[in-house]
Amino acid sequence: MAENVRPRVRVPATVAAGETITIKTLISHNMESGQRKDGDGNVIPRSIINRFTCDFNGQNVIDVTLEPAISRNPFFEFQATISESGTFQFTWYDDDGSVYEEQKEIAVE
Amino acid sequence: MKALALKGVAAVSALSFVAASALADENANLVVNGEIDMTIRAPAPDHMENMSEVMSGWLFRSSETQALQLDDFENPGMIWVDDAREVFASESGSGGESCASCHDSPEALAGVRAVYPKWDEEHGEVQSLEMQINECVTERMGGEPWKYTGGTMVNMTALLASVSRGMAVNVAIDGPAQSTWEMGRDLYYTRTGQLELSCANCHEDNYGNMIRADHLSQGQINGFPVYRLKNAKLNAVHSRFKGCVRDTRAQTYSPGSPEFIALELYVASRGNGLSVEGPSVRN
């Protein structure tokens, strides 16, 4: 398992119904591309986050395929329009099979 | 509930195309997280004969780089601060103690960054923050010393700087520290290397001018450790000194050497009055 992987997410706690919010996510991850070689000339195996998804109350908001050229600690900023209270579910999929998850509640005022 | 736009994908790309015309607003103010009001301009300390105002390196960066420091979520340096928080709370060494055993929380050490390097009576020398941390690690916790500019050490100094943000740098230059400070001052004004450049040639005589594609700052160290876009990691102040001296094509002093400790004290004293900013974001 990759080391020091820590997902973090920023979502407003409350929102007016129908309002568009900005969501920021970052996961600390080395995103080893598989293109580099170590001191002995051996290829360092690829180890990246290959997919990121965000769902709100079961409905998909965004589904991203990540490629090796994306640099360390991938950061996503995107928007969603909210009409009801609920839970954001964020999921990152690692090459090594690990899945990192984070949840955030949001309430409509 | 729909994704409307995917604005930024991963990381900050090269800034090489941001030319001189993109230099930032000179009247900008630095307020981090909407609550920490930084002093980025201050009257020069009395000992500085050639300058009237000291300015944070933040002022010399492009507006895009400046923006990264306004919010901890966007400041890439804060990732390592979180790593250091874990180290702070985890036990190590022969005594089975952690930093938290004595110091409670990192916030209890607020203000420490602002006064280092500082005279240490027990050891009879000026100590940098790194030396103080290693004193804790080896003498109090019974562990192996951390590498001076290694990841664990830089992360910990970033954590300690982060809890002191907004406080004014205030290193003592008189009393027992005076001789070390004078040594640092002499180093600052001594030309080195094949290019025969002293620190002052760039950072005192030419700050605000361009050095090739880069905007020369005053070389203040209130923002260290800094996250640099060029290497995408936190950089310790002695690593930066080493890079600068190397660029004059000289043999450099080693990080943690008495020469760099003295230089750190002197350069820190040139920023007395500016806010502690670390971890800052620079290019």
UniProtKB/TrEMBL annotation, chain A:
Record-annotated Sulphur oxidation protein SoxZ domain positions: 10-103
Pfam family, one: SoxZ
Superkingdom classification of source: Bacteria
Alphabetized InterPro entries for the sequence: Ig-like_fold, Ig_E-set, SoxZ, SoxZ_dom
Name the record gives this protein: Thiosulfate oxidation carrier complex protein SoxZ
Organism: Pseudohalocynthiibacter aestuariivivens
Automatic annotation (TrEMBL), chain B:
EC number, as in UniProt: 2.8.5.2
Top-level EC class: transferase
Localization annotation: Periplasm
InterPro entries linked: Cyt_c-like_dom, Cyt_c-like_dom_sf, SoxA
Stored Gene3D superfamilies: Cytochrome c-like domain
Family (UniProt): Belongs to the SoxA family.
Assembly description: Heterodimer of SoxA and SoxX.
NCBIfam families: thiosulf_SoxA (TIGR04484)
Protein name: SoxAX cytochrome complex subunit A
Organism this protein belongs to: Pseudohalocynthiibacter aestuariivivens
